[in-house]
């Protein structure tokens, strides 16, 4: 039996078993109500409302403290003797690598194709709101993290939900928190294996095949797919064995590189068409409030923009606090401020650059959709836009996709490890078992599609937002206190003084 027939049989068997489950859970998690001529998934509304609430609760912290967040990333307020494994910049790039990816390339194209250029305006707004949510969840992630005797750190909703709720509400809160923590761990683990691993490897392999001669090319065979999967798995396994320090060292180089390549390409297209920029900006703003726009006018563009932004930056899902929790700091809110830069980079900067490039260089992509022929595009729309100025861009796009995919696989490998060890313990055997399992999934990613499991993983991940945001609401007063404490530290540091208990405080170490 050939490798092709084996993989096809596995695909069909697994999909056949899980398809009814994935369909049912997807209908529940992504339940949508008709609004303004289009469907609004309630989970997206849940995420957006959280952004609005936290923006108001913390007095537009994403705008007022943006400069302070940049200073913290630069290391201006670092303290000696802080517990943690990585610096603020490395924690940020590790987390960004889990969100910046194909959604920024293909997702934006889908939004513009369906919702018109106006969807971009609402994507930006949703990204700005998500900054506040990210600030809250990451502050909690650092506040309630576990610092183990060997100096490694574990954090995320599986830690701050049980600890925080127990601290605020006693025994009942502790019981509820433990139940929520187990559910959160399972959801993160499941998505890490299928969405954060298998899907990324599968899509990066598909893009590589497309620029190397297709299925008839050197990598188009099953042997080529297996070789690619083994190479990616080997790289992932080596880096994953080194823990968050190793992952952060890689992502702190990969993320700036891949973002730099992509943004430079966008700027080239925009600068070549610089005279069209004012009209493009006007088109985006006008389209956001155009009652005759695509997919339901104003509300349609708003819903589509919010949907793509929420799926891209993951604010409120509880995934990013796992990476940010490893930061070296004594002030949880310091990393919360760093984290608010994440949706800004992911959605406000990179997604906006993509949208501007498409609107300027490839107006037909959304013009056809506006004409009502139902055209929906993805990465091809983005690629075609670049090709108008850079005919060789599909090759650069392939490099970007590979970098996006590898960094995402690494980050979700770490997220999944923390979920796994919460569920099954931190023994060496437990960790080695997970890393071996994760590596096997990386190999399978180039051979299998298992789309049903990927759909199921998406539904599981976004159901985490329901659990996580309830916890964020209940623990928001804790975040307020942490923010005030850090701002007082900053005030004293600026005045040249010494904030009592900061520089000489020994990090508290706890064991699981």
TrEMBL record:
It is found in: Cell membrane. Keywords: Cell membrane, Membrane, Symport, Transmembrane, Transmembrane helix, Transport. The keyword Flavoprotein does not apply. It is a multi-pass membrane protein. One of its GO terms (molecular function) is amino acid:sodium symporter activity. InterPro entries: Na/Ala_symport. It holds the Pfam family Na_Ala_symp. The keyword Cell membrane applies. One of its GO terms (cellular component) is plasma membrane. Belongs to the alanine or glycine:cation symporter (AGCS) (TC 2.A.25) family. This is Alanine/glycine:cation symporter family protein.
């Amino acid at each position: 039996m050939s490798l092709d027939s084996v993989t096809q049989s596995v695909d069909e068997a697994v999909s056949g078993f899980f398809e009814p489950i994935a369909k049912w859970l997807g209908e529940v998690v992504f339940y949508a109500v008709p609004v303004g001529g289009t469907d609004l998934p309630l989970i997206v509304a849940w995420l957006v409302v959280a952004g609005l609430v936290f923006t108001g609760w913390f007095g537009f912290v994403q705008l007022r403290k943006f400069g302070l967040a940049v200073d913290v990333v630069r290391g201006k307020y670092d303290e000696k003797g802080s517990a943690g494994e990585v610096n603020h910049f490395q924690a940020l790039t590790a987390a960004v690598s889990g969100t910046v990816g194909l959604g920024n390339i293909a997702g934006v194209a889908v939004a513009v194709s369906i919702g018109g250029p106006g969807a971009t305006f609402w994507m930006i707004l949703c990204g700005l709101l998500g900054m506040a949510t990210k600030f809250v969840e990451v502050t909690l992630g650092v506040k309630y993290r576990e610092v183990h005797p060997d100096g490694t750190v574990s954090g995320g909703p599986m830690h701050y939900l049980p600890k925080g709720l127990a601290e605020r509400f006693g025994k009942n809160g502790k019981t509820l928190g433990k139940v929520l923590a187990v559910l959160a761990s399972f959801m993160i683990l499941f998505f890490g294996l299928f969405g954060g691993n298998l899907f990324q490897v599968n899509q990066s392999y598909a893009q590589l095949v497309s620029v190397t001669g297709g299925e008839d090319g050197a990598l188009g065979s099953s042997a080529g797919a297996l070789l690619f999967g083994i190479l990616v798995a080997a790289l992932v396994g080596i880096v994953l064995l080194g823990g968050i320090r190793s992952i952060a060292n890689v992502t702190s180089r990969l993320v700036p590189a891949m973002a730099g390549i992509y943004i430079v390409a966008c700027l080239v297209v925009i600068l070549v068409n610089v005279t069209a920029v004012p009209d493009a900006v006007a088109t985006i703003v006008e389209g956001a409030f155009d009652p005759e726009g695509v997919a339901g006018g104003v509300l349609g563009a708003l819903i589509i923009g919010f949907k793509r932004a929420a799926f891209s930056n993951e604010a409120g899902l509880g995934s990013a606090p796992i990476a940010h929790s490893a930061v070296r700091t004594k002030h949880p809110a310091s990393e919360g401020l760093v984290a608010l830069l994440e949706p800004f980079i992911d959605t406000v900067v990179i997604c906006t650059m993509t949208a501007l490039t498409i609107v300027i260089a490839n107006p037909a992509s959304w013009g056809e959709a506006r004409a009502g022929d139902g055209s929906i595009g993805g990465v091809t729309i983005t690629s075609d836009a670049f090709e108008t100025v850079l005919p060789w861009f599909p090759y650069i796009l392939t490099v970007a996709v590979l970098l996006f995919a590898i960094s995402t696989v690494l980050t979700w490998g770490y997220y999944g490890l923390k979920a796994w060890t919460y569920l099954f313990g931190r023994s060496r055997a437990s960790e080695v078992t997970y890393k071996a399992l994760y590596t096997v999934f990386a190999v399978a990613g180039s051979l299998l599609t298992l789309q049903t499991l990927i759909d199921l993983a998406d539904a599981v991940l976004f159901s985490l937002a329901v659990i996580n945001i309830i916890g964020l609401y209940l623990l928001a007063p804790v975040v307020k206190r942490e923010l005030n404490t850090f701002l007082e530290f900053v005030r004293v540091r600026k005045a040249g003084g010494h904030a009592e208990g900061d520089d000489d405080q020994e990090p508290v170490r706890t064991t699981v």
